[in-house]
Description:
Methyltransferase, Cobalt-precorrin-4 Transmethylase, Domain 2, Cobalt-precorrin-4 Transmethylase, domain 1, five-stranded mixed beta sheet, 33% helix, binds S-adenosylmethionine, alpha/beta
Amino acid sequence: MSQMDDNQAIASTSDPLPWGTLWGIGVGPGDADWLTLKGLRVLQSVPVVAMPQGHNGKPGMAYGIVKDFLSADQLLLPLSLPFVLDAHTLEQAWQAAAVQLVEVLQTGQDVAFIAEGDISFYSTFTYMAKYVHQLAPEVPIQPIPGICSPLAAAAALHMPLAIADETIAILPALYHVDDLIQALDWAEVVVLMKVSSVFPKVWAILAERQWLDRASLVEWVGGQQQTLFPTLHDLEHYQPPYFSILILRRTPYGF
Ligand SMILES: C[S@@+](CC[C@H](N)C(=O)[O-])C[C@H]1O[C@@H](n2cnc3c(N)ncnc32)[C@H](O)[C@@H]1O
């Protein structure tokens, strides 16, 4: 080894390892073919794949979508991110998950955090990125967008989500029925995420306005269990699953 090589070796043993990159990959809402080319390329290039853990302690929906693209030598890092509303519990879970991510990133390994749908649309990735950045501002963070569920649901229903000068209201979760009534007054298109828990109330409001034929429900869009209800007429006592989305178009438009 030359003198110069020797010096480089000494320097490299004392230098801290460069941080790994935290990738956020939106894997789409159900159909694995909806993963972007960039998402797939990065997903297959990283040594560690992190994901929200499902209710049963196993990797959740995002993992189910991309599992066939992963290889056996990639490490899976399921993170416990509970489905609760309590802000303190959530904060603690996000912090703990971010610590787990930082432990890997500081070894210089890249991590892809996969999330269902798009990673900037009501996604846990936002919190992961925030807390990782707080713990280790040096970590490069690279978000890769994905198809979000309202876009996929509109396509499944063969309708535009919005055209011309239409306005859209997206309600992430309906905690107060007044929010829906207000949105119905100004938006031509209303999208209700997480509609399952309030479906009977929503049904009653739409029935009262005689708009049951203008609203559609899409369950598990892109997945094997995908189910479409183009109108809500027969759904008075129906209980949709968590992965369902309602789209109301005041002016029906299909193709
Ligand atoms: C926490 S949000 C996640 C949104 C996701 N990041 C996206 O881009 O669509 C979860 C809600 O999104 C909707 N959703 C997500 N995936 C869905 C799917 N495959 N089919 C129907 N609705 C879905 C449901 O309303 C669900 O309650």
